[in-house]
Amino acid sequence: FFSNSGAEANEAAIKLARGYFYYKGEPRYEIITAKMSFHGRTLATIAATGQEKFRKPFAPDMPGFKYVEFNDLYELEQAVSGKTAAVMLELIQGESGVHPASQEYIKGVRKLCNEMGILLIVDEVQTGVGRTGRMFCYENYGITPDIMTLAKGLGGGVPIGATLCTNKVATGMKIGDHGSTFGGNPLAMTAGNVVMDQFMDKDLLSKVNNSSAYLFEELGKLMKDYPSIVQVRGMGLLIGIEFQTGISAKILKEKLLGEGILVSAIGSSTIRIAPPLIITKTEAKIFIDKLKKILKEQKKRPLQEVAAYASSAKKETEKKEDHIEKELEE
Ligand SMILES: Cc1ncc(COP(=O)(O)O)c(C=O)c1O
How far is CA 278 from the centre of its chain? Predict the structure, then answer.
């Protein structure tokens, strides 16, 4: 089913899981998700999101969701009940710091779901469509989900969401149960086709894997030279770089922005990079060089000065932007 965003794709997945048991005549509706997950910003998807800050202002929460610790199979086993319809997971928790699920955990979740007749929904809105070096991240785990959601990379910037499922689970929706005016519109579908052509004709996955190997290798070297980097994690071109407590991810983000590099600050000391899948080694090297330059300076300067440097770098960027805007106006 095609929709227009990741949240919509997840809404359809949640409805599908509930509908599947409704049409089977089984009173199951509950969906178990992970703490620190992120599934979108609509009412059902914030209810699925295991982070209170996204739900609190919009209470009361939509009922029927339960949260368990990520990567803890025992806690999941304890949470399952006769009401459980599905387990919904990101294989790499992207929004909360790029935390990959362990192989044993995902294999264990799949086994548990099979044994208990529970559906496994995999949210691949961020990890799908080549981001982790495979077309879908679940391929890295040797399992198959019952329902999978996609969005971000699917349209190469044009809004598309997609909810996919097995034939068995497709019985969870009858004609008219779900729909979308713009879902599957010709513009979005054309963009999606172009993205798929790029994968098939240009062997995009090999490129992703090559750039990824280069970035992990170089970040590994940086980690040896700069102990302020405590961990580099992720897969493919979804990478989290965690720094020592006290090093502000926000400041690093601003400093990198001053150097013309866009990253996101997640949590207090982690930055996330998710470069375009077509990034070249030369471009990846620019990032490594800029990060190295900042880390070198940081070694010399005390942290308080780093904050001052960051705000001056931000002002410098704003000045440049003003200048470009004026030039464009002229
Ligand atoms: C894993 C995951 N699921 C769902 C969403 C929501 O997607 P959208 O912003 O397209 O609604 C996101 C967005 O960041 C995401 O990372």
Answer: 18
